[in-house]
Amino acid sequence: MKTTLRFTALLTAAAALFAPLFALAQQETPIIQQEIEIVVDTVGNADVSAKFTLPAAQWQLWKQAYGQNESLLKRDFQHQYSAVVLKDFKLERDDMNRTATLSMKGEANAEYRGNGTWEVELEKGLHSTKVSDTQWHFTKTSAESGAVLQQNFVLKLPKGARGTQEAVSELGVPVLKYELKAAHRSPLLPIVGAALGLLGLVAIVLGILRKPQA
Amino acid sequence: MKRPVFFILGGVLLLASAACFLVFFIARPDPGRVGMQIEVKPAIMTAAYKVYANRNAGDGRYWLAKAILKNDGERPLKNVSTSYQVPGLIGWTTPRSYPEVLPGQTIVSLFYPHFPDTVASKTTNTTEQVELRVEYDEVGRRHQETRQVEFQMRGRNDMIYTTLPAEELVFPHDYYENTDLFAAFVTPDDPVIKYFVQQLEQRAMGGTTVGAGADVDEVVRFMSTVYSYWVASGIVYAGTEGLPEKLGTTTTTIQHVRLPREVLTGKAGLCIELAALYATIAEAAGLEAVIVTTSNHAWPAIKVGDNLIAIEATAIGMPGMGEDSGPAPFQTAQRYGDAELSAWMRGGGAIMIGDKKVGELGTPIAAYDISDLHRKGIVPPELPDDPALRQKIDDTFDALLSRSGKRGAAAAESTPQRATRSTDDATPAPNANANAYNDPGGRFSIAVPASWRAAVAPNPNMPWVALQAMDPNTGVGFEVYVFDGVASVPAVMNHIQSNIASLGGVMQYSAQGSATLGGKQFQRFTGGTAYPAMGTGTEWDAYVRAAGDTTYVLTLGAAPGRLAGARPVLRQVAGTFRVRS
């Protein structure tokens, strides 16, 4: 069993948001854009937010599907992404602008491979752009039952992430690899202690060498 | 500076140094500590045992056990590994290893059990146990923790409709949360089903097959053949409803669903079972099936391109339910299925055929694209071959075909010498006491005995039937079929056979060489048609000619047992048959 990072899976999971729309016949092919941001912390957990705006008819259908049962959305996500611990779901709807933002926290999104190496599992078919070692952009366009879903992902890795690169895991799954040294305990205290001890010894030696005053 | 000041300063610095080291070593971080949470499905379906083994099926949702481990300590845990077993069924799995789990880090270990294929024969429910073993290194020591959780392993015929806790069941879809697994009850690779489809194609479809790329007509013909077999073989709609049971914290509806092989050979099924059987047969023949469901019903449909051809499978009748309504014709079953599908697309409500309301549909739940679900890993169990079930299938086919086969044999006995020779003697002089009939289109002409009753193009649903004539006293008669735009004898014979099948009949025939009628060459056949549900049938001879872009058929028939005696009259009629091309 593989439990590598599923951050993009989480994001593309947001496509599930629109499943009820795709199930219905469309008069025209709607284009739905989704902006997704994932911020990964130093222990592989991630804060995810997905924002989308829908045309009027699709907004109405989407509300019919999930508006009365938002926990269904949570359940669907939890079912689909079993290898991630999803929590802190929050859905904000802006009916005036037919926009919604879904946010959640995903634990175990990245898997630690030891020696400072982390892996994030990527969805197939993503187009990637490396902005820096700590920021990558991905895009994906998919046809879903008559609709076109355009997803733009921004992935932010923790400060200190280095050597980020796309790779293929042992199981042939595309992953994003990065190096991030695990935080170790600060050695400051024994260094200060040693310095103080040395100074103390110097002071005592100086005291011994100094002739007593008559 | 005075000497004592150096001693005091040195002493203070040494004390401060000692304090630093003391604090560093006393205030050591907590050791790594595993916070463990384990979830186990309260019950699993044996029919879907191969699904649970596949981490990719259903996006990975069909795990049996899930362990969430979090390092709640302040030091890393080293060499963490997780392993599972189901005592008696699955030994300890190869440990899943994690070199290091950092403080605050969470890992999720999922267990997708690989049950042995022998569980496919499991028909009873048992309580099993899944065991999780977690090992890790901390402070130079190897730690091990084990947890056990029970789960129910349902018999292979149990369909679990939802796995949600009772308090989560609010909306209709909540009650059907697990129903993708229904695709596991569609078993096209079952050797028994494969054998049945092979026999159906050979013995009821004249060796023709359908499959990917089949057009609407071919698919409808196949569907009607399957339906007719069901009717003729006596498959009935009968069974019980699903009964709610409580599983741990989950209240679920579990329904006993017989596998397609059991329905086919047991000859009884619920709507969901008949839908699964129909879908199974279609998939085994190379078609793609969909099962459409509502809150209280299910029926199958076949995909042809972007279209769905639905059929109400329970139209075969429901004697087992105390409503001895008998089988409906295939066309009725198909029309009803399509009407239900239309109502389903509208979100439920009245089932309308034309302007007439014929029923009320329950709440639409889902349309299960069986081929797609199979591709996604929701696959059926590995069923072993069963010679006894094959024999049952053979027996049923033999019984069905012997009804018309015996009649055919009797006819053959009475005319053995005509089996292969050119039958010029089938063209005697026209009977003087006859009325000549000339097709208005000039395609054919034939003499109808004066005392017979004739009907021109009697059935608008069968436009190829150009003329029908019968002696009202004896039941002896003939029919002329003209297939414009078709110049193929086998295609026409298949079409006729399928059409009879769609009406609940079984047609069997054999080629008997060629014959000359009116100076033109015809292929000659003898055969029989039986309608088991109605207890009627016909023995017949047929002359078929394909020429230009038209195929002509003359059938001469009589009630079972009377064909041999009627042949002299029928030969006279045949002798008057003339075709244009």
Short description:
The complex is a heterodimer of chains A (214) and B (581). Chain A has helices spanning 7-13, 19-22, 56-67, 70-80, 188-209, and strands at 31-40, 46-53, 85-94, 99-107, 111-114, 117-121, 127-132, 135-144, 147-156, 162-168, 174-179.
Strand order of the largest sheet of chain A: 3-4-2-1-9-8-7
Low-confidence stretches of chain A: 1-27
Spell out the helices and strands of chain A N to C.
HHEEHHEEEEEEEEEH
Largest sheet of chain A: 7 strands, mixed
Order of strands, widest sheet of chain B: 22-23-24-28-27-26-25
**Cα gyration radius of chain A (Å):** 26 Å
Q: Quickly count the domains of chain A.
A: 1
- Helical residue percent band of chain A: 25-40%
- Which structural class best describes the helix and strand composition of chain A? alpha+beta
Average per-residue pLDDT of chain A, rounded, comes to 79
The percentage helix of chain B is 25-40%
Number of helices of chain A: 5
Span from first to last CA of chain B?
138 Å
**How many distinct folded domains of chain B?**
4
Level-1 CATH class name of the largest domain in chain B: Alpha Beta
Uncertain segments of chain B: 406-432
Polypeptide structure, described:
The complex is a heterodimer of chains A (214) and B (581). By secondary structure, chain A is α+β, with helices and mostly antiparallel strands. Chain A has one domain (7-179). Chain A is 26% helix and 40% strand. Chain A has a seven-stranded mixed β-sheet. A four-stranded antiparallel β-sheet of chain A has the order 5-6-11-10, with helices on one face. In chain A, a hairpin with a 2-residue loop joins strand 5 (111-114) and strand 6. Chain A is elongated. The termini of chain A are far apart. Chain B is of the alpha+beta class and 581 residues long. Chain B folds into four domains: 1-29; 34-154, Immunoglobulins (Immunoglobulin-like, Sandwich); 161-385, C8orf32 fold, CATH 3.10.620; 410-579, Mog1/PsbP, alpha/beta/alpha sandwich (Protein Transport Mog1p, Chain A, 3-Layer(aba) Sandwich). Chain B contains eleven helices and 29 strands. Chain B has helices spanning 3-26, 49-52, 191-203, 216-233, 260-266, 271-284, 330-345, 370-375, 387-414, 489-502, 563-574, and strands at residues 34-40, 43-45, 65-71, 77-85, 96-101, 106-111, 126-138, 141-154, 158-160, 236-237, 243-247, 250-256, 268-269, 288-294, 298-304, 307-310, 349-353, 356-361, 364-369, 434-438, 444-449, 453-456, 465-470, 477-484, 506-517, 520-531, 536-547, 550-558, 578-579. In chain B, the strands form eight sheets. In chain B, strands 22-23-24-28-27-26-25 form a seven-stranded antiparallel β-sheet. In chain B, strand 23 and strand 24 (477-484) form a beta hairpin. In chain B, helix 3 runs parallel beside helix 9, helix 4 crosses helix 10 and helix 5 packs across helix 6 (271-284). Residues 406-432 of chain B have low confidence and may be disordered.
